Amino acid sequence: MSYLFPMNPTKDIDPSPFGIAACVAIVCFAISYVASVPMSDAVMTRNGPKKKKLSLIFLLGWITLGVMSGLDVASDKNLDKSHAGSRCLCIMFGPFTVILSQKILFGARKTGTFWDEKGTPNFNPIVYSMGGPLFVWGWFMFWIGTCGTPQLMGIDTFTKPSATPAT
Hints:
Number of helices: 7
Strand content: under 5%
């Protein structure tokens, strides 16, 4: 939903083309669909080629989501362009961390990577791995970047240019 609104206190619906691509095409359809029924079927039936194709689509979807989100935030007229690098860094760090967490979580599962490679369950699964915290941290960094928060640290973005920043 945040892709539809500008980063100012108004309630105007003003999506950028990048926000529309990120919101509609990438998030709602590609990533959500790939991560659900087809991936579950590929994992349960141990269909390696299908799982690899779906994993690649998932990976490219997250990278595209990060790029489109970064361009969406960079194209917002209400934000200072000097902070675009820090916002884009947070936005791209988020998907990278989410993808890494999925790799760690799947490797630690009883029927994860070991199941795919050997055909038997992993009898030493790692219940408390870094996958879970990295997943949450990735979504948090992605959220921080898409909200333009690096610019808001220490200054008030929504004041008029003639007003002085709050201390």
